[in-house]
Amino acid sequence: MFSQSEENYIKTIYHLEADFKKGISTNAIAKKLDTKASSVTDMIKKLSEKDVVTYKKYQGVTLTDFGKKTAANIVRKHRLWEVFLVDKLNFSWDEVHEVAEQLEHIKSPKLINELDAFLEYPKRDPHGDPIPDKEGNLQIIEKSLLSTLKENEIGVCVGVDDSSSEFLRFLDKQGVALGKQIKVVEKEPFDGSLVIEMDGKTLSVSNKIASNLYIQKSR
Amino acid sequence: MFSQSEENYIKTIYHLEADFKKGISTNAIAKKLDTKASSVTDMIKKLSEKDVVTYKKYQGVTLTDFGKKTAANIVRKHRLWEVFLVDKLNFSWDEVHEVAEQLEHIKSPKLINELDAFLEYPKRDPHGDPIPDKEGNLQIIEKSLLSTLKENEIGVCVGVDDSSSEFLRFLDKQGVALGKQIKVVEKEPFDGSLVIEMDGKTLSVSNKIASNLYIQKSR
DNA sequence: ATATATTTTTAGACTAACCTAAAAATATAT
DNA sequence: ATATATTTTTAGGTTAGTCTAAAAATATAT
Ligand SMILES: [Mn+2]
Ligand SMILES: [Mn+2]
Ligand SMILES: [Mn+2]
Ligand SMILES: [Mn+2]
User: Fold this and answer.
1) Are the C-beta atoms of A157 and A165 separated by less than 8 Å?
2) Which fold has domain A4-63?
3) Are A107 and A1 in contact (CB under 8 A)?
4) Domain ranges in chain B?
5) In chain B, which among 80-139 make CB contacts under 8 A with chain A?
6) B140-183 pLDDT per residue, tens
7) Where are the strands (E) in chain B, listed by range?
């Protein structure tokens, strides 16, 4: 059984590995967890002791299979709770993260399995991120950043890269939501902005937005 | 904002005060929390510092109004989560306590208010205990231990005193549940056992059970 | 290749929440 | 009333998780 703090480290390493492969640096972890590198070194030693990570001094850290499974289970809980908050308790997608950050640490296998069933086995969380199954496997879908699409390409909005409240609320204001069909009408090379068609209307989105929105291209 | 540990102390003092009025002893708290008296003294000082309790050395501890409100809010969360687990996630009434013990510490006013609404504002938890409202008030109902009823008195089962898994599962086995009508047929002075009528059948219950079951008498 | 900058680890401290053992206060029994 | 028992507090330690500052290792730039 892991402490809340240990779980937060494990989850963070998992997310960093998804982005940057093996050998996650002390500093990278410290930055994500808003703590100091020296604290990370301490914790890393403990996690290595517990066979969650492999660790060679100065070489960064990598999750073991056991560590990966543990991490996936925490992520599974986090995302299932997010679905619960949005689907059942009227939270909006920009409000769920902080609470899920707490709920993910509740220890009860029955709770999480029953929650999964109650929510009818959702496959993705409110931000479009996949929910790992009990074994820790998660299905990856083919998705591309909106900014990488070419003119006239069409797709469906399936996720966000940055899921900060600010970004999500901004998307709300623009009427952008998961499941919406988007067509790239025009790309502006000067500032990287795009003119897109959505809900039959055309609007312009900045490069900043376009490089944070995931699109599943229509074949 | 209080730590999980502080919250557990506050809640425990609250429950003890309900049973024994003011001036809760260090030892009583230690026993309930399964910790040492010296640890309790430490924590009591901190809580007194934070104006949760009033404390005079060797005189025991009493919740302030602020302390009472804080406690009631924790109890509110505990009981609402218990209702959720039973009503929505197929937990039985003997399985919920341990999980609610964790869930009660989640910090999010919106979460608990939405949960309350989602559950349609329940008034009692699965054990018949009242759920405090947002202000910390809880409605008390007139209830008596089954063991105090006289022959031929009739009432409805509305709660349990001991809510240990063992007792609750035993009640399940006997077919006793909240809401069941019970009539005292006969009292056995020798061992304090009772013959009762329930669901049209008569059965005998030991004194141990009769003094852990709350009945609301039919006027 | 060497100097400089950056990253990582170590050393030493702090706080929260525990503990044991001893001392002090209070309660109980004769 | 005094002696004894019990309860409560104090004193001093431990562990988890954090911090700052300094030392060591590694990376980068000339
Ligand atoms: Mn968390
Ligand atoms: Mn999410
Ligand atoms: Mn608790
Ligand atoms: Mn209960």
Assistant:
1) no
2) Arc Repressor Mutant, subunit A (1.10.10)
3) yes
4) 4-63, 144-217
5) 85, 88-91, 95, 98-99, 102-103, 106-108, 110-111, 114-115, 118
6) 889 999 999 999 999 999 999 988 999 999 999 999 999 999 99
7) 53-55, 61-63, 144-145, 154-160, 181-187, 194-198, 201-205, 213-217
